[in-house]
Amino acid sequence: MTHRATTYDTTYALVASLAAAGVGQFVISPGSRSTVLAVCADLSEVNTVIVHDERSAAFLALGWTRATGIPSALICTSGTAAANYLPAMVEAAHSGVPLIALTADRPPEVRGFGAGQTIDQVKLYGYNVVWYHELPVMNECPPM
Prior knowledge:
Distance between the termini: 10 Å
Order of helices and strands: HEHEHEHHE
Shape: globular
Number of helices: 5
Structural class: alpha/beta
Strand order of the largest sheet: 2-1-3-4
Number of strands: 4
């Protein structure tokens, strides 16, 4: 199996698991780093919406989730794109609204090089999330 196939298969499994767990909408702010997430979300049975501005996307997802009671998942690229989700993540946390952020961070060895897209996203949302997990870089994943 190629690295590309493994990446898409693994990512699609994540997206399918979220759908099976009840996520009703993926709100995508496209970027090159998050392409695999966006493509897999679009291939799923779940509704997808594209919103180019990350802050607007996050509040759209928050409002939809608050109105329907059905969790939304946000998808964006790395760095300041993910930081723009913070206000909505804080509001979701304090109002008990289930909002999921899937951010495509850079591998650890290329973080922190002075550009907005290279900021360290580890614990970016602090205590405003119920659960946080950083997936391993795909070439570090054990064979399936």
